[in-house]
């Protein structure tokens, strides 16, 4: 391996605040109905685990949702909008040629002097955003605060009437990355891996722009999770049982079970909100961290690991201490 050391252990960077936004419309799945779907649905989704999901209306654009999540994160961090030096915006569900969502979000937020731009990486977008922001801190010694905003309308990327429609939702999550971590606290490591040989595992092609998964998705994703955990734990000298919270991108219930069993992660430390919020793309990790920070589960000193996989093929994670 060429990357044997954690990237950010001595950087003094920390995730100082979290925020989230859910669209106004809440859709409940009928618990008594579990449509069979096709052979791919059976392999990838399996049993219908999602009870409810949020669906954005026309006003709730990625920028609109992102601003609400960002404001909540800034408030928790105690950072004002004019103290934001950088805004990295992750989105794959509403990609367009130009303009990008990041500058528009910064404008609506009132973070006028922040450098803002978009990243993708599909469902690994949050990891991509954190890693990109951390790297840019190294080039700008005067920067103090960055916003990473992940905002998705996944409901628009599934075929209407399909089983897939029942397991995806819309949301935005945000975190503030700041200088000033105490020793052994803050951001420890991030890793983002790309493997173009897996580009057909999950695709979204014109003209409809609906997501299509291969039957091998769960197996490929589980292998990626295993490789990521091996590499990141070795880099930081950490054992899985030392991690307080594993907060993964929730692909499907089938994948959750495969990852927990493969990596021997106790269910009580494996946290998603998949059953109540569905798969929300790159927003899935920050919205859970935001919920946990607000209900008291996420406490100072906790060690968190956020593994993700995404079409492309990408996989990656962030390791940090609160």
Tags for this model:
4-stranded mixed sheet; 8 helices; Peroxisomal Thiolase, Chain A, domain 1; 322 residues; 5-stranded mixed sheet; globular
Helical content stands at 25-40%
Q: Which strand-content bin applies to the residues? A: 25-35%
**Fold-level CATH name:** Peroxisomal Thiolase, Chain A, domain 1
DSSP summary: helix tally: 8
How many domains, in number, for the residues? 1
What sort of overall outline do the alpha carbons produce when their principal axes are compared?
globular
Largest sheet features: 5 strands, mixed
Counted beta strands: 13
List low-pLDDT spans.
Answer: none
Cα-based radius of gyration, to the nearest Å = 18 Å
Descriptive report:
With 322 residues, the chain is of the alpha/beta class. The protein has one domain: 3-Layer(aba) Sandwich (Peroxisomal Thiolase, Chain A, domain 1), CATH 3.40.47.10. 29% of the residues lie in helices and 25% in strands. It has eight helices and 13 strands. The strands form four sheets. Strands 1-7-6-4-5 form a five-stranded mixed beta sheet, sandwiched between helices. It has a four-stranded mixed beta sheet with strand order 8-13-12-11, sandwiched between helices. Strands 2-3 form a two-stranded antiparallel sheet. Helix 5 crosses helix 6. The chain is globular. The mean pLDDT is 95.
Helix and strand arrangement:
Layout lengths: L12 E9 L3 E4 L10 H6 L7 E4 L6 H16 L8 E5 L10 H9 L5 E5 L5 H15 L5 E9 L16 E10 L6 E9 L7 E4 L4 E4 L3 H20 L8 E2 L6 H11 L10 H4 L6 H12 L7 E8 L3 E8 L1
Parallel strand pairs: 4-5, 4-6, 11-12
Antiparallel strand pairs: 1-7, 2-3, 6-7, 8-13, 9-10, 12-13
